[in-house]
Amino acid sequence: MRLRDIIDSPCGMRYMLEELPLSCSFSSTYLLNTELASDAGTVEGRYSLVRHYSAILKRENSNALINLRHRFFTLKDISRTIDRIASDDTVDDIELYEVKHLILTGIHIHDILVECQISPDGIDKEMLHEALHILDPHDEMVDAFYVYDFYSAELTRIREAISKENSAERLEYLKQEELIEQIRIRGEICSRLRPFCSHLRSLLVTLIECDIAIAKGEQIASLGLVIPEVTDGGSCELISLFHPLVKSSLAAAGKEFTPVDISFCDRPVVITGANMGGKTVVLKMVTLSYYLMLMGMGVPAAKAVIPFRSSIFFVCGDSQNIESGLSSFAAEMKSIDMAIAASEDVRKCSDMLVLVDEPARSTNPLEGTALVEALVSIFSARHVNTLITTHYNIKAEGCDLYRVRGFENGKMNYRLFRTDLSEVPREALRVAAMMGISPYWIQMAEEQLKSAEGLKNN
Amino acid sequence: MPFIQEILKYGSLSVVGLEKNCGKTECLNYILNRLPREGRKVCVTSIGIDGERIDQVTSTSKPEITLSEGLLFSTSEKHYRMRNLLSEVVGISEETTSLGRVITSRVIREGKVILSGPSSSTSLIRWMKEVKALGSDLVIVDGALSRLSSASPAVTESMILATGAALSSNIPTLVAKTAFVVEMIGLDLMDPSVSKEETVTVSSMAAEFEITPGCRRVMISGALTDRMLNRIAQEKELGAFEVVVKDFTKLFITPRTYGAFVKLGGKLRVESRSKLVAVCVNPLSPSGFRLDSDTLCRELSTKISLPVYDIVKNRYITN
Predict the structure, then answer these.
(1) HEC string of A234-270?
(2) For B89, which of A76, A145, A163 is closest by C-beta distance?
(3) Which of A74, A217, A281, B155 is the 20 to 30 A CA-CA neighbour of A410?
(4) Which CATH number fits domain A3-213: 3.40.640.10, 3.90.1150.10, 1.10.1420.10, 1.20.120.530?
(5) B220 and B243 in contact (C-beta within 8 Å)?
(6) Contact criterion met (CB below 8 Å) for A65 and A56
């Protein structure tokens, strides 16, 4: 699965990509086409690149960073030109200029990295100089190209003749000669460049990954993210978890985001709590953290220990799909069914994380509760990492219960705490009253509730 | 040499023709040939296709753009490949036009080229920044007014206007039409003291709009037409606010409507403008009719209080 496939997941991955300060115009396309990591080794490789290049973000390297950004900014995806040279084609001046520009960019970036004492892995400067010499025979290192006179004695002779010629007819003939000689020389240049093609291709990738790694490092610093500790198994621990998008929109309104701590292992976690208590946001934050980890990006927490999982099933309420004619209930059932089907393979269970926001919310509480309890037992028996939010009273067997603190001193406390009580909090009426919903309606509801409880007690 | 010294005071110049066949290309060639090159890098481009061998509308022959050694120019990939000169690629812009990316290069051996550069105002501004970064101290834009190009030449610091018999074969009409455009180019800049809260923005497509009390500026996004100006002229508090357009190229109004608007106390302003350096005339119309050059220059110059030149007649052109 590529980043492109999950970018519009409701967890907010697109925001993280948009906030990535990439310099090169095609880095973002490259990232979108990058596969999510399928093993912990790949993740570690991605994070080690971030650590490696982050040294450039030090204050003393600020000038070097500006230079580097400028170089990345002018970098273009010329892989098609390289492919054409590799496949025995002859390219024109514009494309040869682009190849020269890429080589020069590679050399400059190499030098900037060395200057900042960062080892320029993957950039073979000697090889680049060798390739550059073909396009820059006088080693002038000038960022410009045309078929220079000194490529052949014949071309020098023709051009000299052109500058002295007065007869229009003769001039036309000479210019034709010049054209033929230029075509021949371009062919020669291309065949001399051919052995360097695979190196140029990998240079392009190295440079792009350098740009991406630096951007990830910058994002970690600017949004206050953390590089997680990725483990093979055990419990997932996320301390002071926040959602960057929600945090920034709250900040814009002058409000503060309350970070949340959560940890879970292979027992399903059920989160209950008041409406507007941030249960859905918790699921979004955990999903986001996993996706970010799989992309080797910073995770929005103060501390994060994440057991590697690569099959993420995030089922979030509003998946009603009018186009396919499914109701919200049907769409939700189908999504959850996919997770259950995947968990039938025992080998896959340890690689799964299932996050479901209020399953069966749109049906009656009796059947709804039964559906959720059954879901919890299935995943509990199969030891699948599961996070479920619900308003139903669920038996606490085989799962850990978390509750949003809810209303305290007239204010919502979004923090989570662990509880053994399976009784769900009754705060819907209070929340509605706080929102200024019709008092008449709320009062009627309270009376209904009292009479129903009276009946029960009798 | 007329107006060349004046141009050197600015970092950017556009040459704008009021109509096709007004001698804009001759004017551009004249400037390119006369500019002192010592220690100066000049880069030239066009917004809209230019330098065609044959005029694409009237099929009359047109002078080509001849570029001499050392000059920088920007043109689309398609036209770069068709060039008839020897040049060195020095930059490829991110800007893409319908004819490919914009290639900037330096002339190694003099020759002819078709210029077709950035096609919108934003990309033109970006292009100007890019070529300045390549070390160019004067950028020249071959501008188009009546052409299909959304780029406005008014983003340059200075401007030269080319007019001529192609616009009208009657001297008084030609003078009046040109003088009105000159007046529009010279409109005052908007009042910097007006705040955002005191501004009402009106789309040129809006069927209805309301000018709130306390408004000091009506900002027109897009073109200002006669219909819209007439509608604004009906406002009771016409003197209390200014009407602002992006630049003079967004004005599609007639002298009569504008005259009435001003007499009623209206104020028309622009967000950005170029300094009009000179006006060049081409007394020859595409149909072969020729106006008297001296009379035309004299009458126009008196009317607009600016120098007016007939470059061709006065043999300023060398080739």
Answers:
(1) CCEEEEEECCHHHHHHHHHCCCCCCCEEEEECCCCEE
(2) A145
(3) A281
(4) 1.10.1420.10
(5) yes
(6) yes
Yes or no, beta carbons of A146 and B87 under 8 Å apart: yes
Question: Nearest 5°: CA angle at A78, between A72 and A79?
Answer: 120
The answer to whether the CB of B1 falls within 8 A of the CB of B34 is yes
What residue in A sits closest to B86 (Cα-Cα)?
A146
Nearest one of A281, A272, A309, A286 to A237, comparing CA atoms: A286
CA distances from A442 to A34, A206, A401, A425, A433 (A): 51, 62, 29, 17, 7
Dihedral Cα A48, A54, A55, A59, nearest 10 deg: -160
User: How far is the alpha carbon of B90 from chain A, nearest alpha carbon, in Å?
Assistant: 4
- Token couple for A142: 């000038």
**Per the CB < 8 Å rule, is A94 touching B103?**
yes
pLDDT digits (tens, 9 = 90+) for A348-392: 888 899 999 988 887 888 888 889 889 999 999 998 999 999 888
Residue A375's nearest CA partner among A349, A344, A337 is A337
Q: At what angle do helices A93-115 and A62-73 cross, to 10 degrees?
A: 160
Task: Establish whether this prediction's ipTM goes over 0.95.
Answer: no
Q: How far is B116 from chain A (nearest CA, A)?
A: 16
Domain boundaries, chain B: 4-185+274-309, 196-270
Q: Are strands A303-307 and A229-231 parallel, antiparallel or unpaired?
A: parallel
Strand partners, A299: A226
Compute the mean pLDDT over every residue in chain A, rounded to the nearest whole number: 89
Both structure tokens of B6: 């004046």
Q: Look at A97 and B106 and tell me if their CB atoms are within 8 Å.
A: no
Chain-chain contact of A94 with B108 (C-beta, under 8 angstroms):
no
| A93 contacts in chain B (CB < 8 Å) | 89
pLDDT tens digits, A301-336: 999 999 999 999 998 865 545 556 667 778 888 889
Number of A–B residue contacts, CB under 8 Å: 33
**pLDDT, tens digit, for every residue of B276-295?**
998 998 888 878 888 888 88
Chain B partners of A97 at a C-beta cutoff of 8 Å?
Answer: 89, 92
Sequence ranges of the domains in chain A: 3-213, 226-425
**pTM of the predicted structure, to 2 decimals:** 0.80
Q: What is the CATH number of domain A226-425?
A: 3.40.50.300
Q: What is the mean pLDDT of residues B99-125?
A: 87
Q: Which residues of A touch B108 (CB under 8 A)?
A: 146
- CATH number attached to the domain at B4-185+274-309: 3.40.50
- Nearest 10 degrees: Cα torsion A12, A15, A20, A22: 120
Strand order across the A311-315 sheet: A311-315, A352-357, A385-389, A269-272, A400-408, A411-419
Interface contact A97-B109, CB threshold 8 A:
no
Of A399, A402, A457, A455, nearest in space to A424 by CA: A402
Over chain B, what is the mean pLDDT?
Answer: 84
Give the integer Cα–Cα distance in Å for A304 and A220: 13
Terminal-to-terminal C-alpha distance of chain A: 57
Contact B77 A98 (CB under 8 A): no
**Residue predicted with more confidence, A92 or A328:** A92
A89, two tokens:
């084609």
- Joined tokens for residue A450: 């009292």
The token duo for A321 is 């799909």
